[in-house]
Amino acid sequence: xxSQVSSEAGEALLGEQRGAPAVSHDGDxxxxxxxxxxxxxxxxDSGDGMQLTGDRFTSETASFGNDLSTLPxxxxxxxxxxxxxxxxxSFQLHFADHDILTPGDAPDVLVAMNPAALKANIADVxxxxxxxxxTDEFAKRAMAKVGYAVSPLEDGxxxxxxxxxxxxxxxxxxxxxxxxxPRKEAERxxxxxxxxxxxWMYHRPTEGTEAFLRRKFARKPEIAxxxxxxxxxxxxxxxxxEDFAVSYEVAPATAAFPAGTxxxxxxxxALSYGLIAAARQADLPLYLGSYPITPxxxxxxxxxxxxxxxxxxFQAEDEIAGIGAALGAAFGGSxxxxxxxxxxxxxxxxxxxxxxxxxxxxxxxDIQRGGPSTGLPTKTEQADLLQxxxxxxxxxxxxxxxxxxxxxxxxxxxxxxRIALAYRTPVFLLSDGYLANGSEPWRVPDTGxxxxxxxxxxxxxNHTLADGTDVFWPYKRDxxxxxxxxxxxxxPGLEHRIGGIEKQDGxxxxxxxxxxxxxxxxxxxxxxxxxxxxxxxxxxPDGARTLVLGWGSTYGPITAAxxxxxxxxxxxxxxxxxxxxxxxxxxxxxxxxxxxxxxxEMNLGQLATLLRAEYLVDARSHTQVNGMxxxxxxxxxxxxxxxxx
Amino acid sequence: xxxxxxxxxxxxxxxxxxxxxxxxxxxxKAEAVQSMKxxxxxxxxxxxxxxxxxxxxxxxxxxxxxxGLARENIVFVSGIGCSSRFPYYMNTYGMHSxxxxxxxxxxxxxxxxxxxxxxxxxxxxxxxxxGGNHLIHALRRNVNLKILLFNNRIYGLxxxxxxxxxxxxxxxxxxxxxxxxxxFNPVSLALGAEATFVARTVDSDRKHLTExxxxxxxxxxxxxxxxxxxxxxxxxxxxxxxxDRERAQExxxxxxxxxxxxxxxxxxxxxxxxxATGDLEIVEVTPANEGDVLVHDARxxxxxxxxxxxxxxxxxxxxxxxxxxxRAAERPVYDTLMAEQLDAAVEQxxxxxxxxxxxxxxxxxxxx
Lengths: 645, 368
What we know:
- The complex is a heterodimer.
- By secondary structure, chain A is an alpha/beta fold.
- In chain A, strands 12-11-13-14-16-15-24 form a 7-stranded mixed β-sheet, sandwiched between helices. Chain A has a 6-stranded mixed β-sheet with strand order 4-5-3-6-7-8, sandwiched between helices.
- In chain A, helix 4 links the parallel strand 7 (130-134) and strand 8.
- Chain A is globular, with a radius of gyration of 27 Å.
- The two termini of chain A are 33 Å apart.
- By secondary structure, chain B is α/β, with parallel strands linked by helices.
- Chain B has helices at residues 53-67, 102-112, 124-130, 132-141, 186-192, 206-218, 240-243, 245-251, 304-310, 334-349, 354-359; strands at residues 74-78, 93-96, 117-123, 145-151, 197-202, 223-228, 252-255, 262-263, 269-273, 280-284, 321-328, 364-366.
- In chain B, strand 5, helix 6 and strand 6 form a beta-alpha-beta unit.
- In chain B, helix 1 (53-67) packs across helix 6 (206-218).
- Chain B starts with 52 loop residues before the first helix and ends with a strand.
- Residues 1-19 of chain B have low confidence and may be disordered.
- At the A-B interface, helix 2, strand 10, helix 10, helix 12 and helix 13 of A face strand 1, strand 2, helix 2, helix 4 and helix 10 of B.
- Strand 20 of chain A pairs parallel with strand 2 of chain B, so a sheet runs across the interface.
């Protein structure tokens, strides 16, 4: 359960030995072994349906009650040339009978649907791992396409692995021969055959997938039944063929989960739900102005399904219009949101500056991806932190909130909305591609537990002039929060004009007065600096001398790495930032309390730069920008080096 | 070609049979009778003395009481440029935003608040250069916005560079050897962008300007009003051809719905369709061709003839410039459609239930 407070019980229990002794032998029945965790990777061509296969296996696993974490990985091209290395799409799933934090470093099982998938992924599989290969696709031409002169199934190069050669395509066609489907159509079900086989291997429940297939293909019942048949054929193949002598059980992770109702959820879905929940808790209509961009579009898709919650979604002509419409809706009293990724943030910068000047609530959701420019649209990165902090003209401070796990995107959205509404300011919510598409179990919150986000609109005059006249001053601030009143059109007597030109303190009238500008710049900064954010929690059971600090989606890998170190008797403290602007009040003291501070992030050291500037600490960066999340093992090695240094 | 007798000579302010009540009815009415003074803000107007913007401001402030809407339900949104200071001078809600983005911001406001009367004030640079994209998309969506495009054919606030409506060859600070750009015709552009209401008027003609505002306000959907506006500092006299009583006789073609399109001294000239090309041309009206003179139909289902009319003007000399409402057609309004989808979603799925949404369809229970 990665979104809960860290528990040392989980990965500390793990040995590297995953194949525990057999737990049952029942006459001629196949051997069943119990494992505490498994990492499976499905890999195939972009058109092979690997994401769907992974999603289904995940759902089965979630409903079975394992803890899990997923890592979808796919190319930016919708259909890259078939059978090529750039066209390989994969889905990695880590599931366990205990609390886990990451989608796992290396797969125990690789399902390779074609030579390209094998070639692109085999290096990640440790020796001794299981490899299930669709032998039908290993024709000369397909192998030549990816540089296999000789079949890797025959040249001995896979000797260290437990290889299961399975003619997946032939078996699928055979299973569907009575359906009378065109060959191409029937072949498409081979992913369901593979899913059936893996479901047998790991004792996954199957009802959910069958129901899913019938729902998905409700309008084409023959396709639905063909897929169900392929799925069952895969299961039966596992059960009967001698090649698969052993199946595995991974018990539900009962101890890892506090009591409650659970579901599996991805980051973008959790974030969408967080926005809907925030609007409900604020008693305001939700308005999304957005322009499609990977990996943020799913939020636009999701919110557009929930118009019965009063959610308005506006697909604008461009990124600028997306945030423009949101800002207009904010002026009108909506909880306004724009969703995008790094390149979109660049285009929205001027409007974010306007929102800073207008002091209206606005959420800017940035699902970060690899940059600069178009960069790596489908890969993850955390390199927009400084853009979110400083990417505007003038002094334009914007609060920044970052979720740390897929499920945490829900809570982070509520927190960003709280700050935006209470302080009348645009707020950045910095998620990333890994959180967006990854998923994990989530304890469904009781709606009664959600924070109260209600805020009052201005209703009447708030200032008395020297002559005794009561007037409305749009820039007269709340002395506590420094927030200005939110006076929405339609409120009689509060007619006022706001704009991007510097305003006179209080009245909001245009002012070019130098002293007033100096004051307004400082007061806008003071408002953001003064935002009430919780203190930083430090996980340090051993009184360590080294602290590892992260933010955002590195939570899982960092925490897993810390567990590894502690398991081996090492001492390291760990803390994770949700608030990047303003920082928690105690951050400076926390940092100064350690001899060494290591900052791990998926950029070239952006948080470390901020910490060094703000606190004059010798923060050491450990960085990675390969489009993938950190691997716990590598991170543990780096931390160990830092501890020992 | 219908005979002009067949067209009713009614202004669009009259409700037509079968037409649903105007969207203006969603905006609360003022409780008391208003005057022009009610719409003047306490801010000092800071345009250059003699600027055409003053006349437009006075016309708008003078027209608003006629609308009789609650002042607090009126919002003026502008971009950047001289004209975009307009909202500061209106005692309504207002936003002076950033360059070119007013239609986008106003779209968010109008689509989320159908009880507001939302006006956009913009200029030729703001609307047609940096903000061209937002303008055309607001028009094609038919968002319920009233857009006043002040066209002075020059950049005033940045002190005198050519604009996207400046005539080719114009000598300005940034084009000492003459501008190389072909200008936009804002009316043609708007019609090409599927606009449902397009009009042109002139700052100095208060009566005409007010009548066009009246029709624009009454229109359901986006109304684009191009206002020829004199910049007496950087492009003085740009529209003199249209304002000089003598010259205007030959230069201005006044469009009135249901009337034959005739102009010139003694209405001696008329607009006819060339049967071979379908294009419009100008002829001396004779008893023989009088029946061929085009009758203006602003409510035509297609914008074809309105577009042809917009092409009559010579961009350099402004000869044969049509003034008036080119097109006032009905098409579903974006805001209405959006609101209807929300209602339909509630009808189909019931009012949103957060607890049910969060739980989804695949849950499992852990007992403590």
